[in-house]
Write a structure and sequence with these properties.
Length: 658
């Protein structure tokens, strides 16, 4: 291996050596502990240390770095106290996730390290968001993000590179090409010569770097960092290296040809560099022994601290509480200056006034800029707030949601407009796995609202009509809002944007231009978790939300004998179950109406909760009404047959007569 010292001084040369020595020694210790059954799983980065260490040392401490599962060198280079790392791996309190997530699955704002989620790809879009926030604040900073070559096959990789290119974001995309993704060799992973060549397709620069040569890694990345800080842009780096151990220790390396192993063993980044330093008389054998003894002592002392730490205390209340970031709801009253406006205008007003309120609130979505979005909710926003805050995105929901997450990590707020709620399926992964879990895992909030124009009755067929809230009410960590009236839509959207937690905000597009209401012209908020009682009666209780509210009210008009409590849930998570209980205890009969297909929807859970808590009060079996268990058909008659309005009428009268 050839080393070029360039302008590096002795101190830097030693820093790079020690930077690699420490993670190597920690890993060697971990392998012993693993064999002794003292730790559970280990993903080895032995042989790849030069990349993590070289890249981290090229960044400034305030620059974010987003490592993967083999990048121990990132964590040690940012000087995390070792007992905290060991505590993390043992699920101890001194770790970073309070026993809630393992290995390198954590982030720490203190060290500007944002760890991965198992799904690999979202990491890349998150880096885009972090870099976007830096760029909007005109901070001359670089963000570095890692992926394996296997991870580059995920759509997220392509989406994130494309976004970074279109927006010219200062991100270093670092591919560690170590020959294998689990047992899959590169020949079965991709079909181009170098992954770096892919950069051309996205219109960005790339470099191929010898990932086992610490001086090459550091010097080249250091140069690139300087260049990117000066002129922000994304760069794709392919580090050629090799995975010297199994995917994780248990899975072995039987499938790796021995010849390859031998060839790469000769390129060990630590051994070669050490030899070079000795040959050049930059370091002596005695010094090396001393360094090793010091690190060994540090490891042992810190291991003892971690092992001595008691097991984490289990508290159900604490676990439940920390799924969400605490949010002090601030109630802001309207000043009674009312305007009769449509649902769609109320959403637009709420969004506009929130944009005025928070100058670090960013709107992301397809066609949301000058075009104003397909429903025209952001029409005129660019002239008021500028294109940097009202951002058209390429068609890539997953990386856009991840970008919003990155904005939140870097202290901003984001609203993502799904063009249609149906398309959230291609952004599903980061919502349910990243945004929903991040606060519980390591205390980072996801200050993101995803707006979801949803719902049927508009003749739009199976891919533009779904009301898919049940995909999200199932997932702890998300809040789900579903207003039925303009007044609620505006007040709840304002709260959703104030709330630092991830909120799925459903807007029924059938209501957009058909429902009018009196709405205060100025800013106000409404609380989550408070249903509204639209109508009071003692015959039975109707519980519903969204378009269901309007169907129920319309049908009840036809039956003046049925005196119903009509409860509009407004938010599904949190759910105002108390209001439902109180009503059922009064009426003794409950019918729950939802637009979504019935099975697995919120009506089923409400029904179960009422059964469990109000059984003695019930005078009839609870009725649940939802759409037919089919995809949503497009033709008018078929769609009407699919939707639950008519079935609701039958069920309502049956329940009344029961
Ligand atoms: C979405 C998803 N698919 C599959 C996996 C299982 N898995 C975890 S790591 C990995 C291999 C990744 O290979 P690469 O990106 O090359 O990284 P390396 O492990 O080689 O460092 C696989 C298949 C996963 N965690 N997430
Ligand atoms: Mg790999």
């Amino acid at each position: 291996m050839r080393y070029h010292i360039g302008g590096l001084d002795k101190q830097k040369l030693l820093e790079l050596y020690l930077g690699m020595l420490k993670p190597r020694m920690i890993e060697e210790k971990m392998l012993i502990l693993l064999r002794q059954g003292k730790i559970s799983k280990w993903f080895s980065g032995i042989g790849q240390e030069a990349i993590a260490v070289g890249v981290t040392q090229a960044l400034n401490d305030e620059e974010y770095i987003l490592p993967m599962h083999r990048n121990l060198g990132v964590f040690t280079s940012r000087n995390i106290p070792l007992h905290r790392l060991f505590g993390q791996w043992q699920g101890k309190k001194s770790g970073f996730t309070q026993g809630r997530d393992r290995s390198f699955h954590f982030g720490t704002q203190e060290h500007k390290i944002i760890g991965m989620i198992s799904h690999l790809g979202p990491q890349l879009g998150v880096a885009d968001g972090i870099a976007l926030a830096d760029m909007l604040r005109r901070k001359k900073r670089v963000t570095a993000v890692f992926t394996g070559e296997g991870g580059t096959s995920e759509g997220d990789f392509h989406e994130a590179l494309n976004i970074a290119s279109v927006w010219n974001l200062p991100v270093l995309f670092c591919i560690e090409n170590n020959g294998y993704g689990l047992s899959t060799p590169t020949s079965e992973q991709y079909n181009c010569k170098h992954l770096a060549d892919r950069a051309k397709g996205y219109g960005i620069e790339s470099r191929i770097i010898d990932g086992n040569n610490i001086l090459e890694v550091f010097s080249k990345v250091n140069e690139l960092c300087k260049a990117v800080r000066k002129r922000p842009r994304p760069i794709l780096l392919e580090f050629k290296t090799f995975r010297m151990r199994g995917h994780e220790e248990a899975s072995g390396t039987k499938y790796v040809p021995e010849k390859l192993m031998k060839r790469w063993a000769k390129k060990d980044p630590l051994v070669n560099y050490e030899t070079f330093l000795l040959d050049e008389k930059i370091i002596s054998r005695e010094e090396i022994e001393q360094f090793k003894a010091d690190i060994s002592e540090e490891i042992n002392l810190n291991l003892k601290t971690a092992f001595d730490e008691p097991l984490i205390e289990v508290s159900e209340t604490k676990e439940l509480k920390e799924v969400y970031q605490e949010f002090d709801y601030l109630h802001i009253e309207s000043k009674n200056n009312l305007d009769n406006i449509r649902f769609v205008d109320a959403v637009s007003q709420g969004l506009e006034q929130s944009m005025e309120r928070y100058n670090e609130l960013i709107i992301l979505g397809q066609d949301v800029a000058d075009y104003g979005g397909v429903f025209k909710i952001t029409e005129g926003f660019t002239s008021k707030f500028g294109k940097s805050r009202v951002r058209n995105t390429p068609i890539c929901e997953s990386a856009v949601v991840s970008t919003a997450m990155g904005l939140a990590i870097n202290g901003m707020k984001a609203v993502v407009e799904m063009q249609f709620a149906d398309f959230v399926s291609t952004g599903f992964n980061p919502i349910v796995n990243y945004l929903a879990k991040v606060h519980y895992r390591w205390g980072q909030n996801a200050d993101v609202v995803v707006r979801m124009p949803c719902g049927g009755g508009v003749g739009a067929g199976p891919f533009h009509s779904q009301t898919n809230e049940a995909w999200f009410t199932k997932t702890p960590g998300l809040k789900v809002v579903y207003p039925a009236f303009p007044y609620d839509a505006k007040g709840l959207l304002n709260t959703a944007i104030n709330d630092p937690n991830p909120v799925l905000f459903f807007e029924h597009k059938g209501l957009y231009r058909s429902v009018y209401g009196d709405v205060p012209t100025d800013y106000y908020t409404l609380p989550f978790g408070k249903a509204s009682l639209l109508k009071e009666g003692d015959s039975l209780s109707v519980v519903t939300y969204g378009a269901g509210v309007h169907w129920a009210m319309e049908i009840l008009e036809k039956y003046p004998d049925i005196h119903a409590d009509v409860i509009d849930l407004r938010t599904l998570q949190p759910l105002d179950i108390e209001t439902i209980f109180v009503s059922v205890q009064k009426t003794g009969k409950l019918i729950v109406l939802q637009e979504d297909t019935l099975f697995g929807g919120i009506a089923s859970d409400i029904s179960a909760m009422v059964m469990e808590n109000c059984f003695e009060y019930l005078d009839a079996p609870i009725k649940r009404v939802g759409s037919l268990e089919t995809p949503i058909p497009f033709e008018k008659g078929l769609e009407q047959n699919y939707l639950p309005k008519e079935r609701f009428e039958i069920a309502l009268t049956e329940l009344f007569k029961y």
